[in-house]
Design brief:
The chain is of the alpha+beta class. The protein has helices at residues 8-15, 26-50, 80-86, 89-99, 138-143, and strands at 17-20, 57-61, 67-72, 103-115, 132-135, 149-155, 166-168, 200-202, 209-213, 218-220, 231-238. The strands form two sheets. The protein has a seven-stranded antiparallel beta sheet. Helix 2 crosses helix 3 (80-86).
Length: 241
Amino acid sequence: MRVIGEDVPDRFRQDGYLAIEGFLERETLSQLRAAADLAFEQVIGQTLSLRTAHPRLTWWRLPHGRPYVFKIKPVVDLAPAFAGIAASEDLGFLASSMLAAKATLMEDKVTYKAALADPAAWADLPVLGEDVRKHSDASYFAARGYGRVITVALCLDDCPAAAGALQVWPGSHRRPVRHEPTPNQGPVVPDDDAPDDQAVTLEASAGSLLAWDAALVHASGPNNTDRPRRLLVLGYSASGS
């Protein structure tokens, strides 16, 4: 894994995010991709065969009718590769540096952004688009009893803008941001509080690391490519928080 520079904590406090290209070694990336494939096969296979949504699965139906797999959560217990990277000293050091406290893993998932070929007509799902609207996660985590949270995402595939790359609003973690409730997508941030022209799109290649403060406003668009766009997403909080 790539060595973390000494200036990272300062840049992170100012902007609320960072991106590190080439963070994962090729072998580690290959192992994580295989683990993501296996998790998908297990969870989706069981869901479709039993005609009951797996408890780890978050999915909905797209306007054209196909089921859409957004994420599987948790995943660390499904494969040694996930457990190993989540507990790695490099990620622990990075998260601890950004938290200014010893970091503890508190959440883990893989986001897939993948439409299924099987129509799963039996499933009563909300109809939504592919995009993840502007939001921040800090209030959600606070309601679960956590203090400050750092989110780390490892890109298992290339993440160009066309595949729904992460968008962030630099510095938004350092100011109050309004949230408005929605029926199926949780609280979202109105455009007045996060104008589109202030967004930064974090296009990244496979093996990159993205990290952001949970209070940072972020979003992502649809995956308009014919390739997967998987992220292993790990949340870290200060130990004891």
